[in-house]
Amino acid sequence: MQQPSGKVTPLPALFSQSSFPSQSQHKSKEHSFPLFQRNQSLQLPFFLNLFNFLIPTLFSSQPFFFSDPYATSYLISLFSSQAMLDVSRLQKELVECNRDKQISGVSISLPDGSHDLTHLIGSITGPVSSPYEGGTFTIDIRLPNGYPFEPPKMQFVTKVWHPNISSQNGAICLDILKDQWSPALTLKTALLSLQALLSSPEPDDPQDAVVAQQYLRDYPKFVATASHWTAAFAKTSAGIEEKVKRLVEMGFPEDLVRNTLKSVNGDENLALEKLCSG
């Protein structure tokens, strides 16, 4: 193997002065960079040239630097552009997801009055024959600029009692939202995976340790608590007597439950929080 000479590695042809647009070209809206087109992947020759450029630099005894600051600026903008959200794909995903929402039980929409495609609202129905049946759960979805090469960030807005979902902030423990994400997956498949997670919890890899321990040690109580949370947070408003019954089943005195509900104008969620806080 040829040993490094210790000299500053010269820029290859890819990054020669002639490869960069002039300042007038850079400002022109009509100019397009030869190596990159928006919403498209960088071509193989680019990566090969970049690889041949970086490897000698890494083994150089002197720190690498660009002698031309304009070239440096151009290179930074080149890589920044690569991380742009693929809007065309995202639009197709939204159409596909909402096409059969009555069958799949999952859908995606924009927050009211918003046009920001990086912030979406997902909705999933609770699986049949689970403590979450009959509930509708709202998911906050944030898309990084690198999507679909980076996973979406999802978090339950609706409170849910589940080993793999935080009962405090809705954070989710699911491998495909972390290291097992693939660009071949979509927002719809991610929501369907969350729906399946409701049916089949993984208490050995929990997000909420308290819920996981209850699931493992007292499963009937887990089912009762999860069902109550579904009724309280994921279903449409019920009559006052139903609210009283559910809260009393949680172990609170009936008189205290009625007085608390009255103090919060019948809001069961606020009543539960007030009862729990003492």
Explain this structure.
The protein is α+β, with helices and mostly antiparallel strands and 278 residues long. The protein folds into 3 domains: 13-82, no CATH class; 87-199, Ubiquitin Conjugating Enzyme (Roll); 209-277, no CATH class. The chain is built from 11 helices and 4 strands, in the order H-H-H-H-H-E-E-E-E-H-H-H-H-H-H. Strands 1-2-3-4 form a 4-stranded antiparallel sheet. Helix 10 crosses helix 11 (268-277). It is globular, with a radius of gyration of 27 Å. It starts with 22 loop residues before the first helix and ends with a helix. The active site is at 173 (glycyl thioester intermediate). Residues 85-235 form the UBC core domain. It is an enzyme of class 2 (transferase). It comes from Rhynchospora pubera.
What is the CATH superfamily of the largest domain? Ubiquitin Conjugating Enzyme
Q: Averaging pLDDT over every residue, what do you get?
A: 78
Unreliable residue stretches: 1-22, 24-43, 60-68, 70-82
Kindly report the spatial arrangement of strands forming the biggest sheet: 1-2-3-4
Number of folding domains?
A: 3
Number of E strands: 4
SS-derived structural category: alpha+beta
Termini separation comes to: 73 Å
User: Helical stretch count?
Assistant: 11
- What fraction of the residues are assigned to beta strands by DSSP? 5-15%
Q: At the third CATH level, what is the topology name of the largest domain?
A: Ubiquitin Conjugating Enzyme
List the helices and strands in order.
Answer: HHHHHEEEEHHHHHH
CATH level 1 class label of the largest domain? Alpha Beta
CA-based gyration radius: 27 Å
Query: Considering DSSP H and I runs of 4 or more, what fraction of the residues is helical?
Result: 40-55%
Task: Provide the CATH architecture of the largest domain.
Answer: Roll
Q: What is the approximate shape?
A: globular
Outline the biggest β-sheet: 4 strands, antiparallel
GO molecular function: ATP binding; ubiquitin conjugating enzyme activity
Keywords: ATP-binding, Nucleotide-binding, Transferase, Ubl conjugation pathway
Biased composition (Low complexity): 10-25
Domain UBA: 239-278
